[in-house]
Amino acid sequence: xxxxxxxxxxxxxxxxxxxxxxxxxxSHKYVMHGFGWAWHRDHxxxxxxxxxxxxxxxxVGAVLSIGMFAAGSPLVMGAGAxxxxxxIGLGVLIYGVIYTxxxxxxxxxxxxxxxxxxxxxxxxVQAHKLHHATIxxxxxxxxxxVLARDPARLKVELARQRETGIAVVRxxxxx
Length: 175
Hints:
Elements: H1 7-35, H2 37-40, H3 56-71, H4 74-77, H5 84-107, H6 119-131, E1 134-135, H7 151-164, E2 168-169
Antiparallel strand pairs: 1-2
């Protein structure tokens, strides 16, 4: 049996968490605002439901995490277990927890009420509110969930999208 120090697993977990922001950004931009719009649409529309069709995407992330845990488990895979799988699964799980706290909790206030007045938390909220400034799935800005660009630059991009007809932007967006 291969003995692995704590350095490699820790590096794999951190790399997996960081990689998941890219996975989330690209799946948000190209899947959720593409062929997955039927699941994602209700997230962009006002409603008073506890759950959204959009929450199904969290289940997709859970399946990815569980699948990686299984791939790394000798109990599941026997001698064919791929040891990094466990640590990748943990990184995906940690990203899922961060996503739930930041996106669902902080930004959309589904789990708690706190409106940040300054700092990076405020920037995250502003960037995601600008993401929701478009009507429909076309155009848009700020598809990531944890890394947020400068809201002033996002407003400029939304204004450009409005002027060129790429996106329909709500009047209240200030773009």
